[in-house]
Amino acid sequence: MTRFASSLRPRGHKARASFALVAAALLASGCSVSPKPLTDDENVSRIREDMSVIMAPQEPFSGPVSMHEAMARAIKYNLDERVKLMEMAVANQQLDLSRFDMLPRLVAGAGYTGRNNESGSESLNLATGRRTGESTTATDRHRRTADLGFTWNILDFGVSYLRARQNSNLVLIADERRRRVVQGILQDVRTSYWRAVAAERLLKRIEPLEKRIEAARKNANAMEAQRVQAPLQTLSYQRALVDTLRQLQTLRRELVAAKSQLGALMGLPPGENFTLQMPPDVTGKDVPAITASVETLETYALLNRPELLEESYNARITADETHRALLKLLPGIDLNAGLHYDSNSFLLNQRWADYGARVSWNILSLASAPDTHAFSKAQEELVAFRRQALSVAVLSQVRVAMVQFRELSQEFSLNADQAAIDRRIRQQYVNSSTVGQQGDMSVIQAEVSELVSDLRRDLVYADLQNAYARVMVSAGVDPMPEAVPSQDLTTLRQAVSDGLGAWQQKAGGTARLQDLLVPATTTSEKAPGEKAPVEKAAEPKTDSKAAPVAARNEEPTERKAAVPERVTVAELPQPQAASMSAPMTVSYGPSSRSETAKGYSVPLSALAPMGRASAR
């Protein structure tokens, strides 16, 4: 009987194993994943969730919307601005999480172990080759365990520290991207506001003029039917009326969406109506003035453009990535300690503590050390060259923005003069029409010409305002202070008004770029313990509108030499000598004269613009 039972035991194990395999196969087939499109209920739920945010009520309008209030509402309610704020919040959360990676691991665990029979074993006598024949055990059938382990890898701590520093720079990059979005939004708001103002002014004039043209067309059709005039003359008159009506409809199409675009920038729900605050009619004297010189704007742009600051933070991240790559080549040191408990009754000590240290090193990783270092340095050089190329683009953008602003200023003055002339011509046609010397068609054409001239003047003025804002954006000027005490519309509107009124003073207070470049040979030829005097830069020719810091702060040479912090700008960025035979040249100002690039020493105190915090 015992032999029969023992013969059946393996078959039972095989049956249980087969059943387990079949169950696992069925479970695996049930866990297969197939594409599952969104259902109608899920789409409706998504729409409701999104519209609850988009259609969320804003602060009610207290009156007509001015440009400053439109900018304040865009800063507070624009969804693009909210996206960048959320990206900043995510970057801050990521930084907080990365700080925990630097902590050692402290793992607590508990468990229970049981079995249906004894964990016995025999032993083998190595001298005789015979089994002892006695089964012994040293483990209880049911036991409980608990552990508290401490582990710290010093190499992982260094890597986590560098990763946390990279995440801190990502927070600053997110802030710079938010600045860039805010600057772009406010530029678009300024342009859309003035286009909406032009639309409000002219759409009211287009509607009665269209009614007059329709009435004239009916009269022309009646004259054609009655054959009062020659058919060719009547048809020409009708064609002129249709052409005039077509021009008015083209103007309407260009202006009808301007107000909706402004509402979208302010974050208003689609279709919500609001009233614009109408400024006085613009004239040729309403050209916005830029008193800051283009040279000071260039320096301010190099110091404050979000793109350049972002690339500088990327350079920090790349440098830390180089350190991380080299740090991983070093041997790792593990420190560990733990507290343990085991309820096994056969143990002499059921509670104990252990500790130790271990050094591990992948020696083969040393073979990749030269390539790793070369790759990391190439990445750093790539970031540096990208920042230098961006600096050249920034300087060009400042120059181009100033040129476009000046050209549009002249174009606006001409359009304003033309609009004034067309207004007087229309008045002459009206006066002649009252005494019977001119027909309705001549008066209508004169009114259309005046309307087109006014529209062209207002649209060019909107482009001029856009060019004015583009100068601010190209210089990296923030239209708002760095800290706003409150986020209500009244405070934001006042902050925008103050920022727009003082941006030229803030940007124009920076030293001109050529005044900052002092030849470094004055410091390299001195003895180690001797202070090197600073050469006085050539005094630039300035007008009364723009006075840089370097020209206003006329200090003795001894005081300038006492500045302890100095930065040496090496030779200006240029490709390797092997790829470029001729030296790089650099030119400043409107003149076309070029000179060979040299090394310069720049005082750090001269680089900081007036009124701006030194740390962002």
TrEMBL record:
Keyword Transport present in the record's keywords: the answer is: yes
Q: Where is this region: Disordered?
A: 114-140, 522-598
**Where found?**
Cell outer membrane
Coiled-coil intervals, chain numbering: 199-261
The entry sums up its family as follows: Belongs to the outer membrane factor (OMF) (TC 1.B.17) family.
What are the Basic and acidic residues biased-composition ranges?
527-544, 552-563
Q: What keywords would UniProt list here?
A: Cell outer membrane, Coiled coil, Membrane, Transmembrane, Transmembrane beta strand, Transport
In this record, what's one Pfam family? Answer: OEP
Comp. bias regions, Polar residues: 114-126, 576-594
PANTHER family reported for this sequence: OUTER MEMBRANE PROTEIN TOLC
Q: Look up keyword Zinc and say if it applies.
A: no
Instruction: Kindly give the InterPro entries that the UniProt entry links to this protein.
Output: OMP_efflux, TolC-like
Q: What's this protein's name?
A: Outer membrane protein TolC
Organism (species)? Azospirillum formosense
Where does the signal sequence lie? none
